[in-house]
Amino acid sequence: xxxxxxxxxxxxxxxxxxxxxxxxxxxxxxxxxxxxxxxxxxxxxxxxxxxxxxxxxxxxxxxxxxxxxxxxxxxxxxxxxxxxxxxxxxxxxxxxxxxxxxxxxxxxxxxxxxxxxxxxxxxxxxxxxxxxxxxxxxxxxxxxxxxxxxxxxxxxxxxxxxxxxxxxxxxxxxxxxxxxxxxxxxxxxxxxxxxxxxxxxxxxxxxxxxxxxxxxxxxxxxxxxxxxxxxxxxxxxxxxxxxxxxxxxxxxxxxxxxx
Length: 259
Hints:
With 259 residues, the chain is an alpha+beta fold. It is built from 10 helices and 8 strands.
């Protein structure tokens, strides 16, 4: 259906600061936050012309305030989360995550971690070790890559197309199983589609992991919950039965962060 290049019947945002381009941009962000995903839906929700909406959508995407995925349309972008990185990092993540991670470690028998993104790395902000004698250990404060391991892939899968392209291009293999280039790009599309990631020996030989995002109100990952352990027990074929427990922990932390 063709959308005419004239304002739709819907009223623009009632907020008028006198700075037109800012008001229109905020109206678009509000519309996407409320569920407008396509250009036509944004036009209908804001009352902007098709030309103006398209121009602003492209500009907002270039600044990573919006991201666009083929087949899914526009969503709030990762730069919004990074703009709020001070408050996000100031959140009591350790307190919010400690109980859910302890229950996750007990339920799966594996070590559990919570990561947040900082620039081009992920940082472990809380961890509970497995009680098994053979286990993996990620210390709190560890800075790990985004391009290897299941938690890194979750962050990459949800970032903007431009950011993802840059990071994939810069990615290098840490082990013989580390996906890079086109293979990594395909894996990230799968991660985004199914909502979780697994890895086996990608960051470190013999180590597997399963990760699920802790989502904000705009659908962006504020943090990532992971379990890790020997590849004989975690990741790969073992990922599916472990997934429910990881999801439960992520949802518990989401609920606590929004309370």
